Amino acid sequence: MDEFESLSHSRWECKYHIVFIPKYRRKVLYKQLRKHLGEVFHRLAQRKESQILEGHLMSDHVHMLISIPPKYAVYSGPQF
Fold first, then answer.
1. What positions belong to coiled-coil segments (predicted)?
2. Using CA atoms, how far apart are residues 49 and 55, in angstroms rounded to an integer?
C-alpha cells in the first residue's frame, strides 16, 4: 500500500484522475503548446501544495493522476 500523508490529527491519501479536453477536441496539444504544458501544470499544482504523480498528453486531451491535500477542493468554480 502507498504511503499516506499525515497531519497532527489525521492521515490521508487523496488521488484524482483528471482529464482536460480542449473545446471541440481540437488537436492543438501536440504542436508548440506540448513543450510548455508539463511545466505549467507542475507549477499550478505546486501553488496548491499538490503533486502530479502521472500524466499523459494526447493530441486532443490530457490525463493526469494528481494528489491533492484534503483542504483543497478538486474544483472550486470558475476563477474569473
1. none
2. 17
How far is it, in rounded angstroms, from Cα 72 to Cα 80? 18
How does pLDDT run across 2-55, given as a tens digit for each residue? 577 777 777 888 899 999 887 777 777 666 777 788 889 999 999 988 999 999
User: Which residues are CB-neighbours of 2 under 8 A, at least 6 positions away?
Assistant: 13
Give the three-state DSSP class for 62: strand
Q: What are the chain's domains?
A: 11-67 (3.30.70.1290)
Pick the closest to residue 65 from 6, 21, 25, 14 (CA basis).
14
Please report the pLDDT score of residue 79 as a whole number. 64
- Cell digits for 1? 500500500
Which pLDDT score is estimated for 2? 57
- For residue 35, give the C-alpha cell: 513543450
